[in-house]
């Protein structure tokens, strides 16, 4: 039977009944669908009573943003030096909860990670009372158990509460991923009726909310589900098709203040995010000011995407990652290619304009929103046409480290699944690290001061392994402001150079290795360096001139 809770004291009383040492799943792709009120009150209950303690948190992403949700709790834990509330965490992405990242990095609690898709699919497996998840995602990367696997720190290496092992099926290697079943789950929706049926009409995504409720309720350890909502409706007044989680799966419905139900890290509510309205097309960006080398990378990437559209002779399905890749759709929109690009975001939106920063995971004006596990099924199955992603380090064989640093733990996010399945990948980013001083002129690039090397012999951690591409042929391109590379016969190969760039001085000397060089190196299209539209909708990628 579902109980509706409207008073904070009643919620905290129920929380004290939770057993110490329990595992619990928490919804939330950053702040989207994050049950912030439920999470904060759980922590406050611990602070006031000392219980429940030693909890293990399971997230398919990370339920918070800087200064919100889990990040507030982590900061309080760090400031007081009291780490009794949490004994460990499984989280694919810690970048949006910097205080939790710090706690894990400093070995205060156990830290484990996996791809967003791996955790989401694993929740579905244990929902069916299966022992774990079989996947090829992560093979040949740092997620491979023969490397560091899921463990992020020494405590995880010792406790091994989350485990992976290599198994062989029909002569092929797979990773078998296991973790603790959640004893309870904290999820969030918009409306619940009198028996607990929960809808999500104001949310921008569905996330993995349903699989989390299922996982908590599965045998052999049938647990408890708490649902945070904004309002209560009379039973029988909700459209059955609008119900995302049936009431019998929810034990406690908690009505929270609106301040704890933001759509994203910077968004309280926008009907264009939830699909309530379809906003008008974004205004065209008129060229203004001087182009930067960042603009060059984005514009060259847009040309590459236009090439795929031209080849397919129709619309393409694309995933755009964070950073520079997330800005490519705006160029494509300006070029009149909006209707030829179906953008997808890991959290589930299709179409619209993907948002950035702590609102990443949402789209403005999507034409469809699907559950997160289904989105990652599409990615892993290779049912998109193209992935456009960032990079931090690249080695001679085209292997990529997208974000890992020795002094910072970000987590793999959705990256491993997307690169595992996508048949085409474009990696876009600056050629060097730091803050180089590079001028964009009518004659190309003028490099005044360069940065650190990103094309290295030995990347810190690999998340895209060219030796483990699931037996599928992939077209892989690496785009920078001064050079474009292709993966050819398992080796990084230089195929294009920007005008104004000296190959030996500006490219070879700024790499730790000498890449293969195409017999016919092209010059990057000079139109990219001029502050006007590229005409992609009329001509597609412009003809490249040999140098």
How is the secondary structure organized here?
Elements lengths: L2 E3 L2 H8 L7 E4 L9 H14 L5 E4 L5 E2 L2 E2 H11 L5 E5 L7 H8 L4 E3 L3 H12 L5 E3 L18 H6 L3 E7 L2 E7 L5 E5 L2 E3 L4 E2 L9 H9 L6 E6 L1 E3 L9 E3 L6 E4 L15 H4 L18 H20 L3 E5 L7 H7 L6 E4 L4 E2 L2 E2 L8 E2 L3 E2 L2 H9 L5 E4 L3 E2 L5 E2 L13 H7 L2 E5 L3 E2 L3 E5 L2 E6 L2 E2 L21 E5 L3 E6 L2 E7 L5 H5 L8 E8 L12 H4 L5 E2 L1
Parallel strand pairs: 1-17, 2-3, 2-11, 3-6, 6-7, 11-14, 12-15, 14-17, 18-19, 18-24, 24-27, 27-32, 34-35
Antiparallel strand pairs: 4-5, 8-10, 9-10, 12-13, 13-16, 20-23, 21-22, 25-26, 28-31, 29-30, 32-33, 33-34, 35-36
Helix pairs in contact: 1-2, 3-4, 5-7, 5-11, 9-10, 11-12
Summarize the structure.
The chain is of the alpha/beta class and 547 residues long.
Order of strands across the widest beta sheet? 19-18-24-27-32-33-34-35-36
Number of strands: 36
The structural class is alpha/beta
The termini sit apart by: 74 Å
Count of discrete alpha- or pi-helical segments spanning 4 or more residues: 14
Q: Determine the fraction of residues in helical runs and give it as a percent range.
A: 10-25%
What is the average per-residue confidence, as pLDDT, rounded to a whole number? 94
Shape: globular
Radius of gyration: 24 Å
The total number of structural domains is 2
Low-confidence stretches: 539-547
């Amino acid at each position: 039977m579902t109980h509706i809770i409207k008073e904070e004291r009643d919620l905290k009383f129920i929380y004290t009944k939770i057993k110490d040492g329990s595992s619990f799943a928490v919804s939330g792709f950053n702040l989207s669908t994050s049950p912030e009120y439920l999470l904060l009150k759980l922590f406050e209950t611990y602070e006031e009573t000392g219980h429940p303690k030693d909890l293990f948190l399971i997230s398919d992403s990370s339920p918070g943003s800087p200064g919100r949700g889990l990040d507030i709790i982590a900061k309080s834990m760090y400031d007081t030096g009291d780490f009794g509330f949490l004994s460990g965490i499984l989280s694919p992405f810690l970048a949006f909860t910097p205080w939790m990242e710090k706690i894990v990095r400093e070995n205060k609690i156990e830290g484990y990670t996996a791809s967003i898709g791996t955790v989401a699919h694993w929740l579905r497996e244990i929902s069916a009372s299966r022992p774990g998840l079989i996947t090829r995602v992560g093979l040949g990367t740092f997620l491979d158990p023969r490397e560091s696997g899921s463990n992020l720190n020494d405590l995880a290496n010792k406790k091994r509460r989350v485990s992976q092992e290599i198994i062989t099926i029909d002569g092929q290697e797979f990773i078998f991923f296991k973790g603790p079943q959640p004893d309870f789950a904290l999820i969030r929706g918009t409306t619940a009726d009198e028996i607990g049926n929960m809808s999500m009409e104001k949310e921008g995504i569905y996330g993995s909310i349903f699989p989390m409720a299922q996982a908590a309720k599965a045998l052999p350890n049938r647990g408890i589900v708490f649902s945070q909502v904004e309002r209560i409706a009379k039973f029988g007044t909700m459209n059955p098709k609008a119900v995302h989680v049936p009431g019998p799966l929810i034990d406690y419905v908690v009505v929270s203040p609106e301040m704890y139900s933001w759509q994203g890290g910077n968004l309280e509510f926008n009907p264009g995010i939830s699909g309530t309205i379809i906003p008008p097309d974004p205004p065209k960006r008129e060229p203004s000011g001087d182009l930067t080398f960042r603009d060059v990378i984005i514009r060259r990437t847009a040309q590459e995407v236009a090439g795929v559209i031209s080849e397919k002779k129709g619309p393409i399905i694309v995933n755009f990652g964070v950073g520079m890749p997330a800005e490519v759709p705006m160029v494509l929109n300006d070029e009149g290619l909006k209707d030829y690009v179906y953008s997808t975001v890991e959290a589930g939106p299709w179409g619209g304009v993907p948002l950035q920063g702590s609102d990443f995971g949402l789209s403005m004006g999507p034409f469809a929103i699907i559950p997160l596990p289904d989105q990652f099924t599409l990615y892993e199955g290779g049912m998109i046409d193209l992935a456009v992603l960032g990079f931090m380090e690249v080695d001679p064989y085209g292997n990529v480290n997208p974000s890992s640093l020795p002094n910072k733990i970000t987590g793999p996010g959705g990256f491993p699944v997307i690169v595992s399945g996508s048949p085409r990948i474009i990696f876009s980013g600056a050629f060097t690290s730091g803050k180089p001083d590079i001028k964009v002129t009518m004659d190309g690039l003028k490099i005044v001061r360069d940065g650190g090397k990103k094309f290295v012999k030995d990347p810190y951690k690999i998340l895209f392994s060219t030796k483990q591409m699931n037996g599928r042929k992939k077209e892989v391109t690496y785009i920078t402001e001064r050079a474009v590379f292709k993966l050819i016969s398992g080796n990084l190969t230089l195929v294009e150079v920007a005008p104004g760039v000296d190959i030996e001085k500006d490219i070879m000397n700024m790499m730790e290795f000498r890449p293969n060089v195409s017999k016919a190196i092209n010059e990057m299209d000079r139109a990219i360096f001029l502050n006007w539209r590229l005409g992609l909708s009329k001509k597609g990628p412009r003809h490249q001139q040999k140098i």
